[in-house]
Q: What sequence folds into this?
């Protein structure tokens, strides 16, 4: 890490920003330096985008002081715009224009003409590896290439400060690595880069992090300073006989801050000074452990984890869910290409892949929401595409975005889904009461679902999907955007359901989350490139160089083995 | 199955009612529109400004001018001094009609005692502003009514040769031809259409946009049940809206309601089903609420123009008349005007009821089918 230079690019002091009654940023004091990768880290709603927009001079602060490259964005936004490149979450690429046309457009907007323009284009196309794709329409680029083009457009004028808002969300691991390497080159060029992210493994690799939660700054400084605080507090229980039981027991033990299933093992984070349980081996701490422990100090007391239990209908032995050569084409685009897998009763099966890989499309076909172009999907022995309505009572489905009725209260949403799933009388009352209590929703019973915090929305979605105690549960990206504590709590419930014999299918683009699954299918460009137990998948790629391959290593090796169609690796 | 549909209906009402914006849409605009349209959409002309050029100056001329001034249709706004003043008065839109009483008016009226003029009728001239052709026609109609009455009274008082043939007009059902009687019952149909159409067209599209529709489709609900669950709230809202509008028409504007209430409501339910069916079709074809609203207005505007609400269907070209047969407003307008202004017998109303029933049945089935088709 370079020594701190004398003058920071951005100087933030007591910065505040409110939107109506909501405090988005609450007295932030921090500095951003040139020649460094600064990670802006936190869950959705933490205030990351607000901070970036303030620095870029797109919002006015309500209080505090902010200086960007020597100018105040509030009074002198023009000077700030000249020095800063900003790539928002959904960068304004024109999908119907080619790569070169998009670049020209942004050059025109920035007033870059003549020789300077040619030089800038050469530099950017070489640097992003997009040279061979000059004439391709932006809409036809892969997710990773779109992000690279976005960065290129934000850098038509070489900025002193580059702000990137969640550049890696939903991008496949290979492109993510390339993107990271590309941005590292900029850092070496003494540009200050702010990389906002919800992925904690990325945060770990930054030179400095600003850790935000609900508008407050929890930590500013090098990530390892935070991680080191956890030294001697992280342990692993190697392959306990029943990992779910072991995890639940550990989580209930005093002194255990966090118990997490990781492949066949259970990983523990202990409170300061607490002794680890017998048989636990020390393991190096991670940035996420530190974040969890910070959040834990900060958070309201835990909601009860008890998931209402009752016997579920037995769907029979053997494989409960099967997909056979499942294929779906939209025009000449194949979203899902010959996918086959089988899931046994009580198993948690994960589909892991970047955005647009075909995970949700696969789910929709399994749930009968979309007819397959070819192949069959059977759930509890039924093809839900043609099934009678009774067949659908066997599944619970939680879709990618919050899809309950925002103008109805929590209680009304529960009552509606209870009736729709045919619950009556006493059973209905019990199911609703059980959900309110078991998911810690009582205090929100009368609140409109729209107004709930994100974590509670997800709880309510899961509660509604499981009111009728379905033997099979489909969860489409259930935890995207929530903080690590909420994610843990959510997975606690999923584990409890699986322990009750519920078969769970889940999609995710979080590599670490995929480790919680019993079995995993890796999806890339519509194809299932591998499936198996996470540890076995990793073990396949053990080499002398990487004796302990991560899931990311495995994913990358798999994609490369598939033979990548585009020369994207040219970057 | 019953309890599932009931849950859907309750949810639908809660969703509409708990959102302050959609609650306002149900009540505010329709009421305002009913009041504004009822006052504004009026063919009747009251106290149109009249200019008088009285070259005669006799008592008979004064009498005639007085008759114009007190008819209610006109008000004497200007007395002109000569023919040269006529054009400026009309050009500047200061008056809508000019009445010219020639110098020989009284003489001719009194029989034209001498010479060549004997036996020739007295003549007055009216000049109307043809730029507003509709009003000009109405004003000339008024003028001739006033003159006819003047003639009758003159004959009665002074004797003389009666006019050889005359028309005595009686307007059934609307004796004074008050145009509000014609327009406001039509508004009951049109405003109900607009509100129900918007509510229903948005209902499926909103759920599709927010993702809740997928959530519904993975439950045991059948498309048919979803369709019923979406239709019933539309019918109830439409019944309330139409009742409110009809009550304002009757009690507020004093428009008579002579027909049978059961027939009115029976026809209303069929009409609502037909309208909702169109709304649900549009809603199932739309991907977003914006598309749904555009689609709804793409339906509403031509449907109103081709309904006979403002202009008679008989005046339309044949192929357009043919098109109006799939327009539910066309049928309901006949029933609603028939039950307000006369006691439309059921035997006649049936001809309007069965087409609406068929439109409803066909479109509702199509909509239910589309629910599943248009998910991707």
A:
């Amino acid at each position: 890490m370079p020594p701190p230079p004398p003058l920071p690019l951005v100087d933030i002091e007591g910065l505040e920003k409110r939107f109506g009654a909501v405090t988005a940023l609450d007295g932030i004091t921090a500095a951003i330096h040139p020649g460094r990768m600064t990670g802006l880290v936190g869950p959705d709603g933490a205030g990351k985008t607000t901070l970036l927009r303030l620095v870029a001079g797109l919002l006015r602060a309500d209080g505090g002081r902010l200086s960007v490259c020597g100018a105040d964005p509030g009074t002198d936004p023009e000077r700030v715009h000249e020095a800063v490149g900003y790539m928002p979450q959904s960068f304004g690429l024109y999908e119907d224009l080619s790569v070169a046309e998009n670049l020209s457009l942004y050059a025109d907007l920035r007033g870059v003409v003549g020789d300077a323009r040619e030089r800038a284009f050469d530099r950017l196309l070489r640097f992003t590896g997009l040279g061979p794709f000059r004439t391709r329409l932006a809409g036809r680029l892969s997710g990773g290439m779109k992000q690279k083009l976005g960065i290129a457009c934000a850098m038509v004028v070489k900025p002193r400060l580059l702000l990137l808002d969640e550049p890696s969300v939903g991008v496949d691991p290979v492109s993510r690595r390339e993107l990271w390497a590309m941005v590292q080159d900029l850092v070496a060029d003494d540009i200050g880069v702010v990389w906002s992210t919800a992925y904690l493994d990325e945060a770990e690799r930054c030179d400095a992090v600003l850790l935000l939660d609900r508008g407050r700054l929890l930590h500013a400084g090098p990530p390892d300073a935070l991680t080191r605080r956890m030294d001697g507090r992280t342990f692993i229980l190697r392959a306990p006989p029943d990992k779910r039981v072991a995890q639940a027991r550990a989580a209930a033990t005093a002194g255990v801050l966090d118990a997490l299933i990781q492949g066949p093992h259970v990983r523990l984070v202990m409170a300061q000074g607490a002794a680890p349980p017998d048989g636990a081996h020390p393991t190096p701490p991670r940035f996420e452990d530190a974040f969890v422990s910070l959040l834990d100090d900060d958070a309201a007391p835990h909601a009860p984890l008890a998931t209402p239990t009752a016997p579920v209908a037995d769907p029979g032995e053997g494989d409960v869910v099967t997909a056979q050569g499942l294929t779906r084409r939209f025009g000449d685009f194949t979203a899902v290409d010959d996918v086959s897998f089988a899931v046994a009763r009580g198993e948690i099966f994960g589909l892991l892949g970047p955005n647009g890989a075909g995970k949700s499309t696969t789910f929709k076909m399994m749930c009968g929401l979309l007819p397959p172009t070819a192949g069959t999907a059977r759930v509890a022995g039924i093809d839900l595409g043609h099934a009678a309505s009774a067949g659908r009572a066997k599944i619970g489905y939680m879709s990618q975005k919050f899809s309950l009725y925002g103008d109805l209260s929590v209680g009304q949403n529960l009552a509606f889904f209870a009736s729709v799933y045919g619950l009556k009388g006493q059973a209905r009352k019990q199911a609703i009461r059980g959900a309110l209590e078991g998911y810690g929703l009582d205090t929100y019973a009368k609140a409109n679902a729209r107004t709930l915090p994100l974590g509670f929305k997800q709880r309510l979605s899961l509660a509604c999907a499981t009111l009728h105690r379905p033997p099979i549960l489909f969860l489409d990206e259930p935890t995207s955007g929530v903080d690590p504590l909420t994610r843990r709590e959510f997975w606690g419930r999923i584990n409890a359901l699986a322990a009750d014999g519920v078969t769970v299918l889940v999609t995710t683009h979080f590599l670490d989350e995929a480790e919680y699954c019993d079995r995993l299918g890796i999806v890339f460009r519509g194809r299932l490139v591998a499936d198996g137990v996470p540890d076995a998948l990793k073990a396949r790629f053990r080499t002398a160089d990487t004796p302990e391959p991560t899931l990311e290593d495995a994913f990358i090796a798999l994609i490369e083995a598939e033979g990548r169609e585009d020369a994207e690796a040219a970057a | 199955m019953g309890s599932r549909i009931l849950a859907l209906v309750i949810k639908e009402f809660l969703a509409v009612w708990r959102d302050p914006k959609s609650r306002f849409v149900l009540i505010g605009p329709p009421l305002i529109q009913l009041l504004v349209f009822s006052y504004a959409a009026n063919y009747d002309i009251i106290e149109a400004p009249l200019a008088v050029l009285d070259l005669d100056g006799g008592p008979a001329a004064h009498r005639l001018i007085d008759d114009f001034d007190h008819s209610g249709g006109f008000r004497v706004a200007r007395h002109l001094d000569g023919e040269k003043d006529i054009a400026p008065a009309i050009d500047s839109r200061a008056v809508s009609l000019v009445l010219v009483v020639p110098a020989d008016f009284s003489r001719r009226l009194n029989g034209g005692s001498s010479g060549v003029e004997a036996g020739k009728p007295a003549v007055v001239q009216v000049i109307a502003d043809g730029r507003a052709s509709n009003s000009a026609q109405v004003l000339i109609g008024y003028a001739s009514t006033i003159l006819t009455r003047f003639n009758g009274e003159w004959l009665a008082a002074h004797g003389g040769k009666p006019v050889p043939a005359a028309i005595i007009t009686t307007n059934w059902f609307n004796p004074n031809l008050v145009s509000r009687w014609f327009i406001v019952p039509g508004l009951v149909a049109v405003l109900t259409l607009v509100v129900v159409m918007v509510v229903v067209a948005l209902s499926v599209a909103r759920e599709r946009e927010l993702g809740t529709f997928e959530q519904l489709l993975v439950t045991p609900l059948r498309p048919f049940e979803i369709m019923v669950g979406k239709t019933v709230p539309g019918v109830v809202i439409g019944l309330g809206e139409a009742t409110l509008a009809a009550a304002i028409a009757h009690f507020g504007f004093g428009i008579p309601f002579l027909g049978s209430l059961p027939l009115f409501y029976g026809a209303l339910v069929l009409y609502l089903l037909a309208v909702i069916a169109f709304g649900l079709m549009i809603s199932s074809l739309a991907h977003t609420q914006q598309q749904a609203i555009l689609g709804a207005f793409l339906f509403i505007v031509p449907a109103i123009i081709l309904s006979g609400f403002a202009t008679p269907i008989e005046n339309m070209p044949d192929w357009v008349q043919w098109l109006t047969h799939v327009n539910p407003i066309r049928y309901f307008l006949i029933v609603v005007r028939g039950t307000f202004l006369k006691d439309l017998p059921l035997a006649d109303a049936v001809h309007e009821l069965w087409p609406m029933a068929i439109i409803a049945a066909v479109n509702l089935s199509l909509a239910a089918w589309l629910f599943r088709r248009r998910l991707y």
